[in-house]
Design a protein that fits this description.
Helices cover 31% and strands 4% of the residues.
Length: 99
């Protein structure tokens, strides 16, 4: 069984409720190598879909960049109608440089 709980809870509190639990912190602040599972971990060299030769530092940057691209597409439609420029370039960089 998988149980997801708040990172703010002390491990002792979780283990009282679930004594046989194996605790795994997969946030970017984890003390062990499981932090590499965080979407904010700066792996580097992550290919950006539909952008040949473009890479990002972390998965979160690709996700945020994809969200921006969708927003920019809608902005372009709006620009063509309103003749105004609203969208700005959004660099694909790491969201968390702690590593």
């Amino acid at each position: 069984m998988l149980i997801i709980d708040s990172i703010r809870k002390k491990p002792e509190t979780i283990l009282k409720k679930h004594p046989n639990a194996i605790l795994a912190d997969v946030t970017s602040h984890a003390a062990d190598d499981l932090k590499k599972l965080s979407p904010f971990y700066p792996h580097g060299g992550i290919p950006v879909p539909f952008s040949e030769g473009v890479t990002a530092m972390c998965v979160e940057a690709v996700w945020q960049g994809a969200r921006f691209c969708v927003a920019a597409r809608f902005e372009r439609q709006s620009i063509q109608k309103n003749h105004r420029l609203r969208a700005q370039a959004h660099p694909l960089r790491c969201c968390d440089s702690r590593g």
